[in-house]
Amino acid sequence: MKATTFLLGSLLIVPLMGWHALAGKHYTTKKGIQYYIEHLYQYTWFEAYFECAYRNMSLYTYGSQAEFNDLYELLTSDKFPDKPPHAWIGAVGVKGKFIWIKNQKPMTELHLWAENNPDNSKDIEHCLQIWHSKKFLNDLDCLRKIGFVCEIRRDAEALSPAATGYVESGKYKGLTINLYQNNVH
């Protein structure tokens, strides 16, 4: 009797957990660039960063206007209910100055900002998103829950076990977390 109950419980629980965990999906643009896109609004910027690193990917970093247009075309396709969905990408900032996390370069693509942005509304908008229904970027509170776009890490070879001497084991391979403390008195 206990085995039957456990089996029945497993059959009911596993499909629900599996659906939730597999909501995001890999997509390929018309130009052949691969992305992992989560369109469900369930992730803070930090969780999105982790989800990409967990997949040995990184949050999307702007490479060129052609690449951005290619991604935007994918995000506005019939694959997503919101066109494009609100989605975290890989830049953070303070006081209107943003940097791309992956390459530590300043965000100089000013033409991508939505009108009157970055605005750092209420002094809490420090993370970058692709704005829903617009072909522009917006700064947003990092704790808001939205979707995200991961890209295949262009530095994947540099992070391979052969190059680093580390063995890839477990589900956290490729994750780097930098912690800083600001002691302002």
From TrEMBL:
Domain of life here?
A: Eukaryota
- Where is the secretion signal located? 1-23
Which keywords are on file for this protein?
Disulfide bond, Signal
> Gene3D superfamilies attached here?
Mannose-Binding Protein A, subunit A (3.10.100.10)
Domain C-type lectin, first and last residues per copy:
30-151
Is Protease a UniProt keyword of this protein?
no
Looking up InterPro entries in the UniProt record yields: C-type_lectin-like, C-type_lectin-like/link_sf, C-type_lectin_CS, CTDL_fold
Protein name, as recorded = Lectin subunit alpha-like
| Organism name | Musca domestica
Gene name of this polypeptide: 101899245
